[in-house]
Inverse folding.
């Protein structure tokens, strides 16, 4: 029954698209579209929560659409209901945010029609229960988001971003298509139900795994298939960027989980090595890329890559445990991964909203032109700070919980028998730790350069606090960050049905424990209580404040900054984003990005300023993408000669073909 | 009664052609043209209601019914488009009335020839019809009598007539193969008879015959490396003709190929036609995909995309099997509708911008939203993106063949991806970015374009069961 | 009697191939025209002989068509065109005569190999004829491919058609459809070629295909 | 009853660390001075400094934001909570399970996060230098710390500090290669984290190689007091962690009698003294290194820790 209602809601979303077209550029279109999509997504998320807790699949529905002899199958099982919740939570907050943000929209006629379609597509991907409707929705999701990416088509780089995005999306879809082709077999049995029953051979299964890593990974932004992500996500309007980064990547993860954990049957242990390696590399590379950025939205986009890596680490561990038949450990790892899915969707949306608010207030995405916004936009600054703390995996917020669980899962892995894992897991653990630390650095930079210090440009100096709708959305999300941080037990238990479905068991029940602690394995082994930590910190902090203000002094005097006696009135003398990243660039960048600093010192007495410029090379692009592009160019240039032959030459081609075929005949019998 | 439908499909265009040749005045003839095409379409549609009996010369079965209806439908919509297109051509003076008269006559003649080719029960007759169609199009391609148009027509003519010759030789060989079994005379060229006795034919003769037919009719299908005439003919002729060429003539030639493939498939010790078709299909698909990148002329670009899709279709039919055949048929139908819709859009765009150079047009979605988004939709469809029909057929082709021939399917997938890149690379400059070129109002008839796109869209979401069963029958027929 | 039938048909078909070789050998336009006329005559003869052998009177029509059109009218017409357009007399070839000959040999061999696979129960007459016809077709194509000048390409095309006619007539009891269609196609072909030459006359001052090819579709 | 007693002990611990930490710093300074043949400040000097600072008024830069004023309390509270969850003289603290070693590390991480923000808040170049270097150091120190934690957790089969301490105290640990590596790495990390020589010099200002001091340059009065106290707490915390993990002897059982507790207390003080003494000797005997040598130093620590973990993973017998 739930499925039916969900489909009705999706239908409403789809119906919104033509309505939006009718509204054109009128202001009312904005509130109508976003308002109604807010309502609809809220409804769906409620449905999702409901269906998460009744165990069996709620209502398969076959519509006479799609492949005629197959029909379009839709169903909600626990896995899809979890992701349905994630998708629509993000959708709802994005719509709420956009109710305010959308008023400043430059090209509403290019955003409004595609926005609900995009939401609908993402919902359909999660709802789909056969390969065809899955892929249709998947590619339609790419298409609608492409349209949103090229909404501001006058900037050439947006067009380029959309182009790269669409190509990578096409690549991913084809990979998945081939994967499903393998799973379904030549007679085209595309329903998930029958795919589950068909047991592919080991070789085929491995091929399917690789293809789904390529396909789903390219959409999730796994290194080295991430190239499109930092281009496309920032190009779109901010609430759409939030959806792309916070939600669509999760839909991609859903695709991966669906195929690998659900459809593909029992895994082989070395699959996990593949996934783990991918995850670890993705995590570190993503955050290093992010650290090198000074475009706020691009930084966030790159950081999505890092979190996807963390999620894949969790999934990889779960695969390993599942392959070795350690269900409880698998449940732990899977819970860690999925919880991070939820967490990331929350704080990444929050951060993109913040970036959008800043963009609205200042018209700037480049952090080098921002600064001091905390004075002009205190509330935005506050929620953005919450998001930064959460995404840096710092207690007591939610980001820490999922990483903590991942670490606990890693600590279980020495029991894994296979040697390859014995070596790769600690390495991945180190990578995870490294990425966690770098993430903190990254967001010190993001928040510090953008909101703290003194404004670097007039635009930043007279920014205005953003509107109430946007703030409401952001405050809601930051509250969620805190809630999931201090009461993780609720969310872990909510994931129980999902893990039960995928690996057979679920983690021990958490909510019953005293003081709402979470104990993944055993009390003696490890435990964490975000609530207490939060209470302690706030208590001791306020006690200290109270005591000091009462007993000691509470006098305060404003004065110019001390700065070791070098007063520097010009805000230009502040640390910039790139100078902040300089030490880390020196440590990591030289190898990863072939970073080079070029200083031009004018001759003594010359009045020209000395310049210091930094060169970074995206080695992955240079090694993986540039050659392909070069090859296509080369091949088309070569073949293009065939457009300019003489008739006689064309005839000779025909003649040659004829003679060739005849000789084939002659040789054949 | 039963014979009327078939006769009508032939007679209406024939009469109309004669009439149009006689009548002066553009408006009247244009309307007449539309009416005739519409009547033809209705009669063709009636084939589904009452199925006539196949005679010694005319034949109707599930296979060619699909083709006929498709042909007459696109013929009708194209005539509607051509009415508004030609009007603009006369205003700008690119065409003089006398040529318009000639054009309309030829248009109906072409319709006649194609219908004849489709319902001919006699391999000789079919050959005649296809060649007639070719020659009429040759004349229409050359109609602008510009430097480029003449060259395109000349190229088309020379390559086409070589194709004619090869196809004829193949036809003769088939007769030779059939004669000892069936006996001298007409019967040895009648499809219905040939099919029943094909098993006993001399395999060696059939093989040679198929080689010649593949090359002969393959030239019309536009398979690489026999494709050379196609891009120029599309680019230099009037756009309605480009639409008809891509949408119909290629299909008709393909239809002939399919017939002979069926013939060969029935003969146990003849070579399997599949591999040859698969190879040529792959070559065409990949080759055309790469050719898209260097295109500067919008019509020529879409002509190359036609080559690519013909490659996919031939690949599908070459792979054989019910699913692949179904996919092939579906893809062919979708391609006809989409590509003609694209050419409708392109025709108006070229008229508005006064050029076919991609470099001179830009930001179309800003200057001419309807045309621009129409083109975007068309390209999205032709690139095989959902929820439009071609996605479904490509999905079926690739996924059904990957389990059987992983490498071939992968090559095909790569070809599709490369083509996607090429198409959108150009689309970006045409439809988006800063507006370039004149932005005057377009007096255009959007109905045919959006009618086609609407059909394609519907097919991508929902296919009526009747259509499906029809296609499935044909797919089974093709084996 | 059957032996004689076979021998004569064989001889005629063979000589047709021979004439094709002679065409390949020519490098002067007029000579080429004459050889083509000869080609057509031989064809007419062999068609007539087939008509006699098969006792199929309608084949005489084909023979007459061949003789009238290809042996007389077309050469004269082309001759006129050459004179009027003042095309320089010698044909520039792509590959020299020697290699062209060798290629031709190869093609003939190929066609033999392919055709002699045919089971003998398709009667030998047809089989041999087919082999020759195929070689004539291939030689015609070879000529079109190796000649740069439009007239000689047209002639190559004609001899290709001759090969077809040979095959068609060799096919015993093939319905009239085919002959008509052959004549019809040749007719159309020639008319349209005429139109084209004429139009081209309006615009260029040479029929050399090169002049047409110089502009190759896409402006750079 | 038991709960109340545990609660009492928890409270005692919180106060204890708060009171002991300045003393430890003072002790280290004193020893260093003596080793340099100086008189050196009296042991209680840190207390005096703190009190003086607390009394002083705060001079706040014009460009400082509300965050700048909140941060000292956050940093102090975070560090204090972390320090009070480390078993010092008696195992089985009431709330020790509320945050295991990972959480402790992360808690310190949060403190550092905010401190780095404070460095950027006023918008001076010195603050920027400080925080950018701080995060660079942290980006190496934290993973190293986590790897050490991995090793120890794998040995003890738990990430609970109290459990780990109990396991270490019990005899069945034995000498292990991984353990040694981990300890070495831990000491290196501790030095870096507490901004001691050779990484940083807590005693200097106006030196372009300073890190921690540059961050807090703009702080004054009670804010500065809190931050200093926090860093002293941090030093104490690391010493007690090292103490309870590597020299766990004398740690009183959860339900031990008063005598045992007294012994535990004594042992704890002794450990701190010993630690401080060793630190002083180390600091006097080595020279401050350039900032960009620091990554090598910490990289070495990370590698050691990783090696230890690998060994543990490969076989339990290492």
């Amino acid at each position: 029954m739930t499925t039916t209602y969900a489909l009705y809601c999706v239908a409403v979303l789809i119906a919104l698209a033509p309505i939006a077209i009718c509204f054109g550029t009128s202001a009312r279109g904005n509130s109508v579209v976003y308002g109604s999509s807010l309502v609809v997504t809220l409804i769906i998320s409620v449905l999702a929560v409901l269906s998460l807790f009744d165990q069996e699949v709620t209502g398969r529905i076959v519509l006479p659409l799609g492949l005629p002899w197959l029909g379009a199958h839709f169903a909600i099982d626990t896995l899809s209901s979890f992701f349905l919740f994630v998708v629509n939570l993000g959708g709802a907050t994005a719509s709420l945010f956009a109710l305010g943000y959308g008023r400043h929209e430059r090209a509403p006629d290019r955003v409004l029609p595609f926005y609900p379609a995009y939401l609908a597509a993402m919902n359909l991907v999660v709802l789909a229960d056969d390969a065809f409707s899955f892929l249709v929705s998947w590619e339609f999701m790419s298409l609608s988001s492409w349209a949103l990416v090229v909404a501001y088509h006058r900037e050439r780089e947006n067009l380029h971003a959309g182009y790269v995005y669409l190509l990578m999306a096409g690549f991913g879809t084809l990979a998945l298509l081939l994967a499903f082709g393998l799973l379904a077999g030549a007679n085209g049995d595309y329903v998930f139900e029958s795919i589950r029953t068909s047991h592919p051979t080991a070789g085929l299964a491995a091929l399917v795994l690789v293809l789904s890593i390529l396909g789903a990974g390219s959409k999730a932004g796994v290194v080295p298939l991430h190239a499109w992500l930092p281009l496309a996500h920032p190009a779109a309007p901010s609430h759409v960027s939030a959806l792309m980064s916070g939600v669509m990547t999760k839909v991609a993860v859903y695709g991966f989980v669906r195929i690998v954990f659900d459809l593909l049957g029992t895994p082989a242990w070395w699959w996990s090595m593949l996934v783990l390696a991918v995850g670890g590399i993705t995590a570190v590379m993503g955050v290093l890329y992010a650290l090198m950025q000074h475009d706020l939205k691009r930084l966030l986009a790159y950081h999505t890559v890092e979190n996807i890596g963390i999620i894949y680490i969790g999934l990889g561990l779960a695969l390993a445990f599942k392959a070795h038949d350690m269900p409880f450990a698998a449940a732990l790892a899977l819970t860690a991964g999925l919880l991070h899915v939820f967490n990331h969707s929350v704080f990444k949306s929050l951060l993109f909203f913040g970036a959008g608010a800043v963009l609205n207030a200042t018209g700037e995405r480049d952090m080098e032109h921002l600064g001091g916004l905390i004075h002009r936009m205190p509330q935005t600054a506050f929620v953005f700070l919450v998001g930064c703390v959460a995404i840096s995996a710092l207690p007591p917020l939610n980001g820490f919980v999922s990483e903590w669980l991942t670490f606990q899962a890693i600590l279980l892995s020495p029991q894994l028998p296979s040697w390859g894992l014995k070596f790769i897991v600690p390495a991945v653990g180190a990578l995870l730790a490294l990425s966690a630390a770098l993430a903190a650095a990254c967001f010190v930079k993001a928040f510090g350069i953008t909101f703290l210090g003194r404004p670097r440009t007039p635009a930043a100096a007279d920014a205005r606090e953003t509107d109430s709708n946007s703030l409401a959305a952001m405050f809601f999300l930051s509250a969620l960050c805190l809630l999931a941080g201090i009461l993780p037990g609720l969310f872990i238990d909510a994931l129980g049905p999902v893990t039960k479905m995928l690996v057979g068991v679920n983690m021990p029940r958490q909510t019953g424990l005293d003081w709402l602690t979470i104990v993944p394995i055993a009390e003696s082994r490890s435990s964490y209580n975000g609530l207490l930590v939060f209470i302690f910190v706030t208590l001791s902090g306020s006690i200290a404040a109270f005591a000091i203000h009462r007993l000691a002094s509470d006098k305060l005097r404003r004065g110019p900054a001390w700065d070791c006696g070098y007063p520097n009135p010009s805000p230009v003398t502040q640390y910039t984003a790139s100078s902040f990243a300089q030490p880390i660039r020196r440590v990591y960048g030289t190898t990863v990005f072939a970073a080079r600093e070029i200083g031009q010192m004018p001759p003594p007495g010359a009045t020209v300023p000395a310049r210091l410029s930094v060169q970074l090379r995206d080695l992955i692009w240079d090694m993986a993408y540039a050659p392909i592009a070069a090859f296509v160019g080369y091949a088309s240039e070569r073949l293009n000669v065939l457009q300019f032959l003489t008739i006689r030459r064309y005839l000779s081609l025909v003649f040659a073909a004829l003679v060739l075929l005849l000789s084939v005949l002659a040789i054949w019998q | 009664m039963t014979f009327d439908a078939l006769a009508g499909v032939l007679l209406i265009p024939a009469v109309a052609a004669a009439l149009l040749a006689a009548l002066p005045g553009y408006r009247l003839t244009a309307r007449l043209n539309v009416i005739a095409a519409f009547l033809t379409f209705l009669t063709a549609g009636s084939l589904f209601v009452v199925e006539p009996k196949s005679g010694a010369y005319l034949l109707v079965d599930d296979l060619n019914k699909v083709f006929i209806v498709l042909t007459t439908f696109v013929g009708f919509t194209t005539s509607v488009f051509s009415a508004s297109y030609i009007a603009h051509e006369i205003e700008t003076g690119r065409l003089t009335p006398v040529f318009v008269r000639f054009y309309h006559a030829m248009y109906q003649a072409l319709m006649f020839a194609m219908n004849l080719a489709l319902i001919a029960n006699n391999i000789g007759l079919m050959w005649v019809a296809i060649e007639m169609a070719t020659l009429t199009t040759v004349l229409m391609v050359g109609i602008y009598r510009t430097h480029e148009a003449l060259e395109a027509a000349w190229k088309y003519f020379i390559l086409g007539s070589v194709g004619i010759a090869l196809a004829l030789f193949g036809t003769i060989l088939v007769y030779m193969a059939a004669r000892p079994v069936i006996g001298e005379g007409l019967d040895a060229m009648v499809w219905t008879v040939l099919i029943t006795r094909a098993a006993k034919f001399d395999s060696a003769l059939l093989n040679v015959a198929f080689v010649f037919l593949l090359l002969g009719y393959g030239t019309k299908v536009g398979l690489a490396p026999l494709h050379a005439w196609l891009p120029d003919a599309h680019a230099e002729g009037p756009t309605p003709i480009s639409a008809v060429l891509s949408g119909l003539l290629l299909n008709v030639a393909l239809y002939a190929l399919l017939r002979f493939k069926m013939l060969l498939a029935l003969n146990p010790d003849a070579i399997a036609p599949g591999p040859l078709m698969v190879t040529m299909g792959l070559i065409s698909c990949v080759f055309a995909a790469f050719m898209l990148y260097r295109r500067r002329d919008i019509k020529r670009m879409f002509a190359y995309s036609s080559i690519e899709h013909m490659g996919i279709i031939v690949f599908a039919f070459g792979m054989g099997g019910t699913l692949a055949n179904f996919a092939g048929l579906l893809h062919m139908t979708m391609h006809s509708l989409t590509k003609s819709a694209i050419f409708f859009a392109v025709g108006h765009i070229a008229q508005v911008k006064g050029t076919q150079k991609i470099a001179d047009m830009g930001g179309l979605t800003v200057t001419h939203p309807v045309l621009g988004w129409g083109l975007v939709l068309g390209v999205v469809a032709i690139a095989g993106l959902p929820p439009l029909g071609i996605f479904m057929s490509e999905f079926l082709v690739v996924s059904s063949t990957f389990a059987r021939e992983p490498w071939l399917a992968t090559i095909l997938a790569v070809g599709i991806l490369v083509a996607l890149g090429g198409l959108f690379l150009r689309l970006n400059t045409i439809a988006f970015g800063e507006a370039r070129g004149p932005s005057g109002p377009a007096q255009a008839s959007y109905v045919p374009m959006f009618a086609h796109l609407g059909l394609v869209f519907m097919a991508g979401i929902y296919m009526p069961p009747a259509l499906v069963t029809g296609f499935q029958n044909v797919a089974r027929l093709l084996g | 009697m059957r032996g004689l039938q076979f021998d004569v048909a064989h001889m005629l078909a063979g000589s047709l191939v021979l004439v094709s070789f002679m065409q390949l050998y020519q490098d002067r336009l007029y000579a080429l025209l004459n050889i083509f006329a000869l080609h057509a005559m031989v064809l007419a003869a062999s068609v007539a002989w087939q008509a006699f052998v098969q006792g199929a009177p309608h084949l005489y029509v084909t023979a007459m068509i061949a003789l009238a059109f290809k042996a007389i009218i077309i050469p004269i017409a082309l001759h006129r065109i050459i004179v009027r357009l003042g095309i320089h007399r010698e044909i520039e070839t792509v590959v020299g005569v020697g290699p062209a000959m060798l290629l031709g040999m190869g093609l003939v061999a190929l066609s033999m190999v392919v055709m002699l696979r045919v089971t003998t129960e398709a009667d030998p007459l047809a089989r041999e004829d087919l082999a020759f016809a195929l070689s004539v077709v291939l030689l015609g194509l070879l000529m079109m491919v190796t000649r740069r000048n439009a007239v000689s390409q047209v002639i190559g095309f004609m001899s290709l058609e001759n090969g077809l006619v040979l095959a068609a007539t060799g096919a015993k009891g093939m319905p009239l459809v085919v002959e008509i269609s052959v004549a019809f196609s040749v007719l159309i072909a020639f008319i349209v070629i005429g139109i084209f030459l004429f139009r081209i006359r309006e615009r260029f001052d040479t029929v050399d295909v090169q002049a047409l090819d110089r502009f190759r579709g896409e402006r750079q | 009853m038991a709960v109340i007693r545990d609660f009492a002990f928890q409270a005692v611990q919180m106060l204890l660390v708060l009171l002991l930490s300045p003393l430890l710093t003072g002790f280290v300074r004193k020893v260093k001075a003596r080793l340099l043949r100086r008189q050196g400040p009296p042991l209680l000097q840190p207390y005096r400094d703190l009190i003086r600072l607390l009394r002083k008024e705060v001079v706040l830069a014009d460009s400082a934001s509300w965050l700048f004023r909140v941060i000292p309390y956050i940093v102090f509270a975070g560090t204090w909570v972390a320090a009070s969850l480390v078993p010092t003289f008696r195992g089985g603290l009431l709330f020790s399970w509320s945050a295991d070693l990972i959480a402790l590390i992360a808690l310190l991480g949060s403190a550092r996060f905010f401190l780095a923000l404070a460095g950027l808040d006023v918008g001076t170049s010195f603050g920027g230098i400080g925080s950018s270097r701080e995060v660079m150091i942290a980006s190496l120190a934290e993973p190293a710390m986590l790897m050490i934690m991995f090793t120890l957790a794998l040995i003890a089969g738990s990430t609970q500090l109290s459990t780990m301490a109990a396991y270490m105290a019990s005899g069945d640990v034995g000498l292990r290669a991984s353990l040694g590596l981990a300890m070495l790495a831990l000491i290196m990390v501790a030095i870096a984290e507490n901004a001691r020589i050779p990484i940083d010099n807590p005693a200097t200002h106006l030196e372009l190689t300073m890190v921690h001091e540059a961050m807090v340059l703009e702080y004054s009065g009670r804010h500065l007091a809190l931050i200093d106290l926090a860093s002293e707490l941090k030093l104490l915390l690391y010493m007690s962690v090292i103490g309870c993990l590597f020299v766990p002897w004398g740690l009183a059982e959860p339900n031990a009698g008063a005598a045992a507790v007294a012994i535990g207390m004594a042992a704890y003080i002794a450990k701190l003294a010993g630690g401080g003494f060793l630190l002083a000797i180390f600091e006097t005997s080595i020279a401050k290194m350039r900032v960009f040598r620091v990554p090598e130093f910490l990289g070495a620590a990370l590698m050691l820790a990783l090696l230890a973990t690998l060994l543990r993973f490969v076989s339990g017998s290492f």
Remarks:
- Chain A has a mean pLDDT of 91.
